[in-house]
Amino acid sequence: MKTRLSSLFTDLYELTMAAVYFEREMFAPATFSFFVRSYPKNWRFFIFCGLEEVISWLEKFSFSEEDLAYLDNLGLFKPAFLDYLKNLRFTGDVFSMSEGAIFFAEEPVLEITAPLPQAQLVETFVINTLCFNSLVASKAVRSVLAARGRMVVDFSARRTHGVEAALKVARNSYLVGFSATSNTLAGKLYNIPVTGTMAHSFIESFPSEVEAFSAFAEIFPDNTVLLLDTYDTITATKKAIDLAKRLEAQGKRLKGVRLDSGNISHLAKEVRRLLDEAGLSYVKIFVSGGLDEYQIEKFLEEGVPVDAFGVGTKMGVSADAPYLDASYKLVSYDGRPVAKLSSGKKTLAGEKQVYRFKKNGFLQKDLVALRNETFDAEPLLEKVMEKGKRLKPKQTLGDIKKHIQMALKEIPDELKAIRPSENSFYCVEVSPHLAALQKKIEEEIRLKEILV
Q1: Rounded CA gap, 320 and 311, in Å?
Q2: Local mean pLDDT, 10-residue blocks, the chain (452 residues)
Q3: Predicted pLDDT of residue 342
Q4: Which of 115, 158, 209, 409 has the highest CB neighbour number within 10 Å of its CB?
């Protein structure tokens, strides 16, 4: 989408805090860290998406005259602060994992260092963008893993939470391994393959099912996938076989059939039998209708002969895990490491780096360390913006997709299971120096702030 999202997309308390920072001249560098605290049920890893969107927004960060007029009308802010916002631009640094990186709970994925008001004001956008994109990518990849190499297509556009969400779902599901989308606008914007043939309304609008099938095949002889379950699936299969034979006589082939309702497990087996007996083993069976990774896994465990899956609502809204428990927290201000001690919501102090250790081509463990520490392992956070400017060119979707495919091969199988064991969690450790700093900061806070 080419429209610019206003920098006014922020929670009001970000602005009230920034106003106080302005009055107290608190412009020293502040570092905020974005991370996810915990996993949804049965998830053991995440895929990081949304970085490009964050970088693009930060590059254009500014308040328009209309934005400032609105803030002025609220009657909350002094003219001097509004004048400050008028000329405000993002001038900070961003350290981040690469788009498409595999990451785990309780480790920093992105850190922003900027003058305190700037770093504070971008919080809402950063959390919103990284949460949704990473959530959808992490949900979608589970269907890809469950499908065991079979084609998976995005059918989510009708029931996602708005147009923008539908576009992001199409993009992120494609990145993690979906073959195509039904969303034509997403196809245009992101150069994603698009797919789709007919709905039940198409069948119903013709005097008969045979006429509907024939009309479609006449217009799209090389891309005919017949929807079989409008009236009776088995009867429709026999009609499809007759059409397939007529197409063969013309040197064409019926591409496939789709099942969208009923007892899919039984029907798919019966449809496959009828097609094979008719010498139509090349006709693919496409299944859709309320699918998610659990249903896909169940079909394949039952030996259901499915060649491709259309996955929609439950993936597009991440039905069983509609949010990530993510945070963007201050970890350093003016050279002073800081931490939060809230029960169940502690934060690790200081600017950080994450090191990834591998063994025999598989991920072994991650180590969260201070940024100035070095280890004989792969550092995952790299500087992607400096003084408000991007340091690397925009990645293509193809490059990100390849990166994700390679990264998935490095994840141990037990972490990729759709229903993993309760004890199969990836090891994320804290370096001794970071642990010592954390202990020191917590002791200082208790002495200074907590009454005994």
Answers
A1: 14
A2: 75 98 98 97 98 96 97 98 97 98 98 98 98 98 98 97 97 98 98 96 98 98 96 98 97 97 96 98 97 98 98 97 97 96 90 97 97 97 98 94 97 97 96 97 92 67
A3: 86
A4: 209
Task: Yes or no: say if 240 and 226 are a contact pair by the CB < 8 Å rule.
Answer: yes
User: Cβ(153)–Cβ(173) under 8 Å?
Assistant: no
> How many C-alpha atoms does 32 have within 13 Å on its Cβ side?
20
* Residue extent(s) of CATH 3.20.140.10 domains in the chain: 12-136+324-449
The structure tokens 């007029």 sit at: 69
Both structure tokens of 208: 């008969």
Evaluate the CA torsion angle 217, 190, 122, 378 in order and state its sign: positive
φ, ψ dihedrals at 104, nearest 5° = -130, 165
DSSP string, 85-143: HHT-----EEEEPPTT-EE-TTS-SEEEEEEHHHHHHTHHHHHHHHHHHHHHHHHHHHH
- Which pTM does this prediction carry? 0.95
> Of 114, 116, 110, which Cα lies nearest the Cα of 54?
110
Burial of 260-276, coded b for 16+ CB within 10 Å and e otherwise, reads: beeebeebbbebbeebe
The Cα–Cα gap between 71 and 221 comes to 59
What does the pLDDT read at residue 450?
A: 85
Q: Order of strands across the sheet with 151-154?
A: 180-181, 151-154, 308-311, 284-287, 256-259, 225-227
Coil/strand/helix, residue 171: helix
Residue 248 amino acid letter: E
- CA-based torsion, 419, 131, 143, 52: positive or negative: negative
Domain with CATH 3.20.20.70 in the chain: 140-316
CA distance 111 to 33: 4
Q: How far apart are CA 298 and CA 310, in angstroms?
A: 15
Give the class (CATH, top level) of 140-316: alpha beta
The per-residue pLDDT for 452 is 62
Residues belonging to the chain = 452
- CATH 3.40.50.1240 describes domain 12-136+324-449: no
Sign, CA dihedral 314-317-323-328, equals positive
446: which 2 tokens? 């208790």
* Residue 1: per-residue pLDDT: 46
